[in-house]
Structures are given as C-alpha cells and as structure tokens.
C-alpha cells in the first residue's frame, strides 16, 4: 500500500550543470550564510550591483533585458532554494509560499534560474518588462511586482547517536519586556518601509522558450522554516533614484561657467 509523501519529502527539481552552461558567469565569494544570491543581466553579461537602502536590497533593471538569478550553495551539504519572482513560484506558477517546490543545489554548487519552468527541459526567459506585461499581472496577481525572493532550506541529517545523562540546568530568567525605545525604533523602521513602498515601474515578463534541463529528486528539509531568506527588489534607474536608493552624483572639477568662451564675434561657417 502506497502513502502520499509528506511535504518535507516530496519530489523537488534539481537543475543540471547543462542548464548553468547557458550562462557562463564568474563565481562570486560566499558569506557565512548557506547561500548567496545574485541577479545577472544577461544582455550586459554582468552581475547587477546591489544597493542597500533602509534595510532593503535593490538592483537596477533595464527594460527589455533578460536576466537570471544565480543561487550558490556555500555549504557542505545540499540545500533547497524555493524561488519566487513578483510573488509567483518560478517552478510551479503558484502564488509563492516557502513550503513549495524549488531547486536542489549540490554542496558548493550553483544554479542559474533563467526563467519560468515549463517542463523538465524548458523555461520561459525572465526579462524586465512593463508592469502590464509582467507574468504576474497577466495571471491576475499584480500586487507583488518588483521583488525576487529565495527561501533556503538545509537538508535534514541523521542525528548522531546519543546516550541519556542527567543534567541540572538553572532556569533561565524571564525575558525583559520590550523597552519604549525599542518599540519606537520598530515603529520608525515600519514607517521607513512604508515610505519606500512606491508602485513599481517594472515587472518580469514571460519570454522566449529555451533549453534548461532538470530532473526530479527527493529532499527532506531540516526544518519547516527557511534557514535563510533573501529578498531583492528591482526597478528602473529613475525610480530608484527618486526613492533615494541610488547614490547622488558628485560634482568634480571646476564650477560650471555660464560664459566659457572668450569675447569675440561669430566666425564664418
């Protein structure tokens, strides 16, 4: 008698190295987190610079350019990356949630997520589009445009064998109540986030079909909550400049002169 697999052990998708070969991009350094996430402009063949503003990460998107999301496993065991674009799961097309399907990445490996998965062999390319042409808008879900999310889960490991023993541990003191200053700081952060919540002027379209093979594998999460959650917002350069995300240009050299020429008359052409 067969039994349905639990959500933690159901099949997930594993991108193969052949899929990554479509986008030959340089590797980037890892941090202490399980994974590193970067956004690459495929037209410019370069990683998009990340700008930090009021606790959020932003990249500049160029309308019409295709892009890819590179997820690198910085750990010595497999991880699962559940990827969403504009609030939509890029593998299943569902409204995204962390407990859904994603990509399994081998230890110290990486995957280039280049589009919406259509089957085990093809994807439809991501490209920066007008909001009206975004896949999320065209499928009736326009409320979360302009954001890329990756929920990272470590794989469950068998616990080492332990032996029972007695241990006396002092009761921990009760947690101190939140101070008024802490509550004020949280309110200030919420107000700053609300100030940045302008309507996005970019979304992600459903582009050309391309070869991107994958296979189904089993994966059991170490826990029900993500071990890492990455959020990257994207928008046009002019929109991010208006929000104060991009650094202001600095003037260098002499001050502008309204009359830089010498005194004289108009010469013949």
Task: Write a structural description.
- The protein has 269 residues and is mostly beta strands.
- It is built from 4 helices and 16 strands.
- Strands 4, 5, 7, 8, 9, 13 and 16 form a 7-stranded mixed β-sheet that branches.
- Residues 1-9, 16-25, 178-185 and 187-196 have low confidence and may be disordered.
Task: Put the structure in a nutshell.
The protein is mainly beta. 11% of the residues lie in helices and 32% in strands. The chain has one domain.
Largest sheet: 7 strands, mixed
SSE arrangement, N to C: EHEEEEEEEEEEEHEHEEEH
Which secondary-structure class do the elements indicate? mainly beta
The low-confidence runs, each spanning 5 or more residues with pLDDT under 50, are: 1-9, 16-25, 178-185, 187-196
Oligomeric state: single chain
The total count of strands amounts to: 16
End-to-end span in angstroms?
94 Å
What's the overall geometry?
elongated
How many structurally independent domains?
1
Relative helix content: 10-25%
Mean pLDDT: 81
Q: Approximately what portion of the residues adopt beta-strand conformation?
A: 25-35%
Radius of gyration: 24 Å
Number of helices: 4
What's the topology here?
Blueprint (H helix, E strand, L loop, with lengths): L10 E5 L1 H4 L14 E7 L4 E2 L3 E3 L2 E5 L6 E7 L5 E7 L2 E2 L13 E3 L4 E4 L1 E3 L4 E8 L5 H4 L8 E8 L25 H16 L7 E9 L2 E5 L9 E8 L1 H6 L27
Parallel strand pairs: 5-16
Antiparallel strand pairs: 1-15, 2-3, 2-6, 4-5, 6-10, 7-8, 7-9, 7-13, 11-12, 12-14, 13-16
